[in-house]
Specification:
heterodimer; A: 11 strands; 23% helix; globular; B: alpha+beta; Mth169, Chain: A; Phosphoribosyl-aminoimidazole Synthetase, Chain A, domain 2; 40 strands; 32% helix
C-alpha cells in the first residue's frame, strides 16, 4: 500500500503543489489538507504516515514567521501531533514549515511547554533572499530523511532563516544539514550561508531523526532543469532534493 | 488599554536598524551611529496581568531573541536630548495594517477573548548627534509617509471611533443650475463638456436630477482608465481621420493574423492562448503608476495584487504562475535638493516599490522570473510601475462566462473599506504638488494573504462549476465590476449587503470603493449554498449582494431605498466619442561631434555601470523566483548564477516537457527621437529575447502597455499614433498577434509653470510556448575554443544609445527594424538552436556588441577575443566606437562549437544564394579571463579582465 502523506495547508501556504509533486515522484499518495479540516476533524492525522508543513507565508508571517501557525499546531492540534509522533511517524517542515515546527516546540526536541532554546530570526542581511546554496549532511545525525546523502544543492528563499540559540543550547541540538561551499566545507560565510545562521545550521532534527526541519527547499530541485547550471552541465534526470523524499517514503513503508 | 513594546535583545545584530543607519548616511546624515527598532502593539482591552503576559510570551515576543515590556499607560516618552532621539510612527486612522487582524485571531487562539482592537506602531531609537532639522529630514524622507503614517504625539490614543453613517439620499441638481454651478459639478466628477451634455440630456429625458452614486458610476465607467477613450477617439492626423486607434492598429493586426491558438483576445481581463491543447495561458500586464508615486510600497503591492486578479478573473479563472515587473524611475543619485515639493526622492520610490512588489508577490507564492528597471530624470514625479501576471487555466474555460437572468451577484474575498475611493479618476489626472496631500484616500492598502486565500478557494469553486462568470474588482470597484458584467443583462445590487471593514461608509462609498482582494461572481441560485459553504471552510468572506435580470438597467438599493437607476445602454454606449487632433513633427537633436578614443575600455566599463545596464541582482534576489518549482531559465544565469538572462522560461506543468517563455521589450530612449521606431524596436527586442533562449516565433503573443504624457496635446497624441502604427506594421510581419493591453496617459507633473512629461514609454511583453524546455539555452559562454558569431547586420544607429548618452548626446539615427529580414533571421536561428548547434546566445540591445559580449564572457567566466573588422555592416561605419556600441536591432551573438561551424552556417544561410541573413565569425572564446577587442586595423581597442567588467556592472546597485 502506498505511503499516505498529508501536506498541511494554511492561509498563506504556497509551496504545497510542488511539495505534492515531490512526494508523488517519490511514490507516495498525497493529500492536501487544510488546517481547518484537521481542527474540525474532517480529516484525521492518524490516517497518514507522513505529515509535511510546506513553505509559504502562513498568516502573512505577521508578528514572526510561522508563529501564528505554530500556535495553532500547539494549541489546537497538539494532542493529535503528539500521538502521531508517538506512533513513530514522520514530520517534515520546509522553510515556513520549519519555522512553525520550531516555534511550536516540536523541534529541536519536544519542549513540553518548557522555555524554547532555539529560534529562527531575521537574516543578517535584513533581506528576503532567493539563491542556491550548497549543503553538507551531518553524517552523525539520526535524521532518517538525509540517510545516505552526502551533499545537496538546493535553493533558499526566506527572510527569517537564521538559527539563533540561547547560550549553551546548541550542544544538545541534532544538526542534520549545514550550509557549505561547493566542496562540502562547512566553514563558510555569506552568501554560502545565506542568513548568518549560527554554526552554519541549515536543518535540524529531533533525537529520533523522524522530525526534520530545514530552511532550503528540496521540493524545488526534483527535476534536472531546476538546477541553475543545467544549461552548462546538461540536465540530470532527477534533482538533488528527490533523495530526501525517497528516504522518507522508504522509511514510512515499514510503518 | 495596554501598550506592549518588543525589542531585540541587545547582543543580537539588528538588521533593520543597520539598514536604517545606511539609509540615513545616504541622506548625508552621518552622525547617526545606531538605530534600534521597537515594535509597539496597542491592545484595546483591560486584561489581567497573566493574560497579558500570555499574549506577550506566547505571541508577540520571541523568547530567544526578544525582550518585551508592557505598560497600561500610553505615554510616549518624549526623551529628547541631542545624542538620543526617539520617534514613534503609526498608521493614520482609516489605514489598516493587516497585521492587526492576524494578531486579533492569534490572541483568540491563545484563549484570550477580551481584546477589542489592536493597533501597531514602530518606535525608532536614534543614537547620534542630530539637530531638529536633521530629525525632520529623517522623519520626512525615511520613516514617515504622511499619506499613510504620522508621528505619534505624546498622549495620543490609538483607537478612534469610526464615524457613524446615517442614510441620506443625495441628489445633485444639474437640470436647474446656472452655468457656474454646473461647471463645478462637471469638474468635481471629471467629465468633459460633451460628456456632461450627454448626461444632462439623459436625465432631462428621465425627468429628474441624478443621485450622487449615478454620477460616480458614470464618472468611473467613462474614465480614461476604464474605457480608454483616447485610444477609441476620432483622431485627425496628417489629413486623415483615424476612427478608434486601437481597432485600426493593434486589434486590426490580431484580426488579420487570426491565429487559431488565440483563444480570447481583447474581451476579458487578460488575453488567452492555447498551451498544449488542453491547458491555456493567459497574460496581462498593467501599470500602477500614480498610486506608486505617492505611496510606493502600498501602490506597488496593490499593483501586483491587482494584476494577479486579472488572470484569476479571466475566462472562468486562471491560476497565477508567474509575475514580471518593469519599473521606470529617476536615477537614484538624483540630487535631493532638486526634488520638487510633494515628490518623493527616486531612491525612496525605488526601494518602496521593490519592497511592495516583493512582499506581496512573495506572499502569494508566485515566482517573479523576469523584469527590467530603467532610469530617466523625467520619471522623477511620475515613476512607472508595470506588473504582469501569467496564468494557467483549462482551455475549455478560456472564454469569458455569461450569466443568466436570476443568477446571483456574489462578492468574495476582502471586505470593503474606504480604500482607494476615486482611484480611477485620480489615475487619469495630472499630478500636482497637492496630489500627495489630497489623494490620501486614493491609496489602497493590500493584504496578500487574503488574496492568496481567495485564489486557493476560487480555483476549487471553479473546478466544481459553482459559478457562471467571474471578474475582478479593480479600478472603479463594484461600480466597474458589476456595471460591466451586467452590460448585456441588467442587475439589482443591495449595497447594504456588502461586507464592510468598518461602519460609516455611505452607499456611494461602498459602490466605488477600490478595496483590494475582491472578486465578483455570477452564481446560479442552485449553487449558492454549496459555494457559501466552500468559502466558509477556508475562512473567506462571500456575500450575495444582488441578482442579475434582463431589463438592462443598473439598480442600486440601500436599506430598501432606490439610490440609483441607470440605463445600462446609456452607461456603456452613451459616452460621446472624443475628437482629437494629432500632429507629428520629428525632433532634431545635435549630431554628436566627438572623436573616437583609441581605447574604448573606459566607455565600455561606464556603460556596464550605467543605471540602465547595471546588474539588478539586488532586486532580483529579493523576489522568490523558484516558488512553484517551474523555473527552467532563471533571471540570473551563468557559472556563478549572476549573469543577465534574456527571457525567462518556466514549466507550468511539472510533469510535462512544454514550457512558457516570458520576455519584455522597452526602450524609451528611442522614443524621444521617433516613437515609431521605439515601438518597432521594443517588439524586435522582445522577440529577440525569445529566440535567444531557444524559442521560436511560431506561437508568440504580445501585450502592449502605453505610458504617455498628456494626449490632449496634439504632439503627444501624434507620438502615440506613430507608436501604435508601428505595432500594427511589426505584428503583422512577425506574425505575433496582440492579445491584450493597457494604457496610462496624462503622466505629467507641473512645477510652477513648467510641465514635465515622462518620455513616451511603450512596454511590449510577450508570451511564447516552447515545445521542449530541454532545448533552452542560456547566454553565458560555455567553452574555450568555441566560435563567436554575430547574426544580423550593424548599422550606424546610435541615436538614443547608451553610448551617446554617456557622451552627452541623443543623436538622430535611431535604430530601425526591417521585420521581413529580421523574421527570416530569427526563424533560421531558432532552427539552429533546435538542432543543438547553439551553445550560448545573447541579443544585442543597450550598449550593442560591446555590452553583449562582455556579459556573455563574465557570466560564463571565460574570456573572448573579438575582431571588429569581421562585423558585417549594413552601411559604412568608419569608427570603432560606433561599431562596438551601435544599437541596431535584430542582432545576436551566438556561441558555436568549432566542429559545428559548417552545420550552423548551412542552417543560417540555407542553400539558396538569395539569403538575406548577415552572419560572421567575429571571435573565439578563450581560457584566460580577459576580454580583448581589436579594431579594423588590428589595434587593441578594449583589454580588460572579466573581474573588472563584472565589478563595474555589479557595483551601482550593490545596496
Amino acid at each position: 500500500m502506498a505511503v499516505r502523506t498529508l501536506i498541511l495547508r494554511a492561509p498563506g501556504t504556497n509551496c504545497d503543489a510542488e511539495t505534492m509533486f515531490a512526494f508523488q515522484q517519490a511514490g507516495a499518495a498525497v493529500s492536501l489538507v487544510h488546517v481547518n479540516q484537521l481542527i474540525r476533524h474532517e480529516e484525521q492525522l492518524a490516517d497518514y504516515q507522513i505529515m509535511v508543513i510546506p513553505g509559504g507565508f502562513t498568516y502573512g508571517d505577521d508578528v514572526a514567521a510561522g508563529k501564528v501557525l505554530a500556535n495553532e499546531l500547539r494549541l489546537k492540534l497538539g494532542e493529535d501531533i503528539l500521538r502521531f509522533i508517538e506512533d513513530g511517524k514522520l514530520i517534515l517542515g520546509i522553510c515556513n514549515g520549519f519555522q512553525a515546527l520550531v516555534k511550536a516546540g516540536f523541534l529541536p526536541e519536544l519542549s513540553g511547554g518548557a522555555q524554547p532554546q532555539l529560534t529562527l530570526a531575521t537574516n543578517d542581511s535584513g533581506k528576503f533572499e532567493c539563491r542556491w546554496v550548497y549543503l553538507a549532511v551531518n553524517q552523525k545525525s539520526p535524521c532518517v530523511f538525509t540517510r545516505g546523502i552526502d551533499r545537496l544543492y538546493l535553493p533558499v528563499a526566506h527572510g527569517e532563516g537564521k538559527v539563533v540559540a540561547l547560550p549553551g543550547a546548541l550542544a544538545d541540538v541534532n544538526i542534520a544539514l549545514y550550509y557549505a561551499d561547493e566542496q562540502g566545507n562547512t566553514n563558510v560565510g555569506y552568501p554560502a550561508n545565506p542568513n548568518g545562521s549560527t554554526g552554519n545550521i541549515a536543518g535540524i532534527c529531533d533525537g529520533s531523526g523522524r522530525i526534520f526541519g530545514l530552511m532550503p527547499h528540496p521540493e524545488r530541485h526534483i527535476r534536472g532543469t531546476q538546477h541553475p547550471q543545467w544549461t552548462r552541465q546538461g540536465a540530470r534526470e532527477y534533482g538533488d532534493g528527490l533523495a530526501l523524499f525517497r528516504n522518507a517514503v522508504a522509511w514510512a513503508k515499514s510503518l | 488599554m495596554h501598550r506592549v513594546e518588543v525589542s531585540l535583545k541587545s547582543h543580537l545584530p539588528d538588521a533593520r536598524g543597520l539598514g536604517l543607519v545606511r539609509d540615513m548616511h545616504d541622506l548625508g546624515i552621518t552622525t547617526i551611529t545606531k538605530v534600534g527598532v521597537v515594535d509597539v502593539y496597542w491592545l484595546d482591552a483591560d486584561l489581567p496581568s497573566d493574560e497579558l503576559d500570555l499574549i506577550c510570551r506566547g505571541l508577540l515576543a520571541d523568547p530567544v531573541t526578544q525582550h518585551y515590556h508592557c505598560e497600561s499607560v500610553f505615554s510616549v516618552a518624549g526623551e529628547v536630548d541631542t545624542d538620543y532621539h526617539t520617534v514613534e510612527v503609526t498608521y493614520n486612522a482609516g489605514v489598516t495594517d493587516p497585521v492587526e487582524a492576524t494578531i486579533g485571531k492569534a490572541i483568540r487562539d491563545l484563549g484570550v477573548s477580551g481584546v477589542r482592537a489592536v493597533k501597531t506602531a514602530k518606535r525608532y531609537l536614534l543614537q547620534g548627534r542630530l539637530d531638529e532639522k536633521q530629525l525632520e529630514v529623517i522623519c520626512n524622507r525615511l520613516l514617515v509617509n504622511p499619506i499613510i503614517q504620522h508621528v505619534v504625539r505624546p498622549g495620543e490614543i490609538g483607537f478612534p471611533q469610526n464615524p457613524q453613517y446615517r442614510f441620506r439620499l443625495n441628489q445633485i441638481d444639474i437640470l436647474g443650475q446656472d452655468r457656474v454651478s454646473l461647471l463645478s459639478v462637471r469638474q468635481q466628477f471629471g467629465f468633459n463638456e460633451d460628456e456632461f451634455k450627454a448626461i444632462i440630456a439623459y436625465f432631462r429625458q428621465q425627468g429628474r436630477n441624478p443621485f450622487d452614486v449615478e454620477l460616480e458610476t458614470l464618472a468611473q465607467t467613462w474614465s480614461e482608465h476604464c474605457v480608454h477613450k483616447t485610444f477609441k477617439a476620432k483622431i485627425s492626423f496628417g489629413g486623415k481621420t483615424i476612427n478608434n486607434l486601437l481597432k485600426s492598429t493593434i486589434v486590426k493586426a490580431t484580426n488579420e493574423l487570426a491565429k487559431p491558438w488565440c483563444l480570447s483576445v481583447f474581451e476579458d481581463n487578460a488575453g488567452v492562448i492555447d498551451f498544449d491543447g488542453h491547458w491555456a495561458l493567459c497574460f496581462k500586464v498593467e501599470t500602477h503608476n500614480h498610486p506608486s508615486a505617492v505611496e510606493p510600497y502600498g501602490g506597488a503591492s496593490t499593483g501586483i495584487g491587482g494584476v494577479v486578479r486579472d488572470p484569476l478573473g479571466t475566462g472562468l479563472g486562471a491560476r497565477p504562475i508567474l509575475n514580471t515587473d518593469v519599473f521606470c524611475f529617476a536615477p537614484p543619485d538624483f540630487p535631493y535638493e532638486k526634488v520638487p515639493r510633494g515628490v518623493l526622492h527616486p531612491r525612496r520610490i525605488f526601494k518602496g516599490v521593490r519592497a511592495g512588489v516583493a512582499d506581496y508577490g512573495n506572499r502569494l507564492g508566485i515566482p517573479t522570473l523576469n523584469g527590467a528597471i530603467l532610469f530617466d530624470e523625467r520619471y522623477l514625479a511620475n515613476p512607472l510601475v508595470f506588473c504582469g501576471t501569467l496564468g494557467l487555466l483549462p482551455g475549455k474555460l478560456a472564454k469569458r462566462g455569461q450569466q443568466k437572468p436570476g443568477d446571483l451577484v456574489v462578492v468574495v474575498g476582502g471586505r470593503t473599506g474606504r480604500d482607494g475611493i476615486h482611484g480611477v479618476t485620480f489615475a487619469s489626472e495630472q499630478l500636482t504638488e497637492e496630489s500627495s496631500a489630497v489623494s490620501y484616500s486614493s491609496v489602497q492598502v493590500g493584504n496578500a494573504i487574503v488574496e492568496k486565500k481567495v485564489i486557493d478557494i476560487l480555483l476549487q469553486a471553479r473546478d466544481r462549476g459553482l459559478y457562471r462568470r467571474i471578474t475582478d474588482c479593480g479600478g472603479g470597484g463594484l461600480s466597474s465590476a458589476v456595471g460591466e458584467m451586467a452590460a448585456e443583462t441588467g442587475v439589482s445590487v443591495y449595497l447594504d449587503k456588502v461586507p464592510l471593514k468598518y461602519a460609516g461608509l455611505s452607499y456611494s462609498e461602498i459602490w466605488v470603493s477600490e478595496s483590494q482582494e475582491r472578486m465578483v461572481l455570477a452564481v446560479p441560485p442552485e449553487c449558492v449554498a454549496e459555494l457559501m459553504t466552500l468559502f466558509a471552510s477556508e475562512d473567506v468572506d462571500a456575500a450575495v449582494i444582488g441578482e442579475f435580470n434582463d431589463d438592462r438597467r443598473l439598480r442600486l438599493l440601500y436599506q430598501g431605498n432606490l439610490v440609483g437607476d441607470l440605463s445600462l445602454e446609456f452607461l456603456h454606449e452613451g459616452r460621446p466619442q472624443l475628437q482629437r487632433e494629432a500632429v507629428w513633427q520629428p525632433p532634431r537633436y545635435t549630431e554628436p561631434d566627438f572623436a573616437s578614443s583609441p581605447d574604448l575600455t573606459g566607455a565600455l566599463l561606464s556603460i556596464l555601470g550605467s543605471w540602465d545596464v547595471c546588474s539588478k541582482e539586488w532586486v532580483i534576489r529579493q523576489y522568490d523566483h523558484e516558488v512553484q518549482g517551474g523555473s527552467v531559465l532563471k533571471p540570473l544565469v551563468g557559472k556563478n548564477n549572476d549573469g543577465p538572462g534574456d527571457a525567462a522560461i518556466i514549466r507550468p506543468l511539472l510533469d510535462s516537457e512544454k514550457g512558457a517563455i516570458v520576455a519584455n521589450g522597452i526602450n524609451p530612449k528611442y522614443g524621444q527621437i521617433d516613437p515609431y521606431w521605439m515601438a518597432a524596436s521594443a517588439i524586435d527586442e522582445v522577440l529577440r529575447q525569445i529566440v535567444a533562449v531557444g524559442g521560436n516565433l511560431g506561437k508568440v503573443a504580445l501585450l502592449d502597455n502605453f505610458c504617455w504624457g498628456n494626449t490632449d496635446r496634439p504632439d503627444m497624441l501624434g507620438a502615440l499614433v506613430r507608436a501604435a502604427q508601428a505595432c500594427y506594421d511589426m505584428a503583422t510581419v512577425y506574425q505575433a498577434p496582440f492579445i491584450s493591453g493597457k494604457d496610462s496617459l496624462y503622466n505629467e507633473f507641473q512645477i510652477d509653470d513648467e510641465i514635465i512629461s515622462i518620455p513616451h514609454t511603450l512596454l511590449i511583453s510577450a508570451i511564447s510556448v516552447i515545445e521542449d524546455v530541454n532545448c533552452a539555452i542560456s547566454m553565458d559562454f560555455k567553452q574555450a575554443g568555441d566560435l563567436v558569431y554575430i547574426v544580423g547586420s550593424t548599422q550606424n544607429e546610435l541615436g538614443g544609445s547608451e553610448y551617446l548618452k554617456l557622451k552627452g548626446f541623443v543623436g538622430n539615427d535611431v535604430p530601425k527594424v526591417n521585420p521581413r529580414r529580421a523574421k527570416e533571421l530569427m526563424d533560421k536561428l531558432s532552427t539552429a538552436t533546435e538542432k543543438g548547434l547553439v551553445k550560448a546566445c545573447h541579443d544585442c540591445s543597450e550598449g550593442g556588441i560591446g555590452v553583449a559580449v562582455a556579459e556573455m564572457a563574465f557570466a560564463g567566466g571565460l574570456g573572448v577575443k573579438i575582431q571588429l573588422k569581421a562585423v558585417p555592416l549594413g552601411e559604412p561605419i568608419d569608427r570603432e566606437d560606433f561599431i562596438l556600441f551601435s544599437e541596431s536591432n535584430s542582432r545576436f551573438l551566438v556561441e558555436v562549437a568549432a566542429e559545428n561551424q559548417k552545420a550552423f552556417e548551412k542552417v543560417m544561410k540555407g542553400t539558396s544564394s538569395k539569403s538575406l541573413v548577415d552572419l560572421a565569425v567575429i571571435g573565439r572564446v578563450t581560457e584566460d579571463e580577459v576580454l580583448e577587442i581589436y579594431g579594423r586595423d588590428g589595434s587593441k581597442v578594449v583589454a580588460v579582465s572579466l573581474a573588472d567588467l563584472k565589478e563595474a556592472w555589479q557595483k551601482p546597485l550593490r545596496w
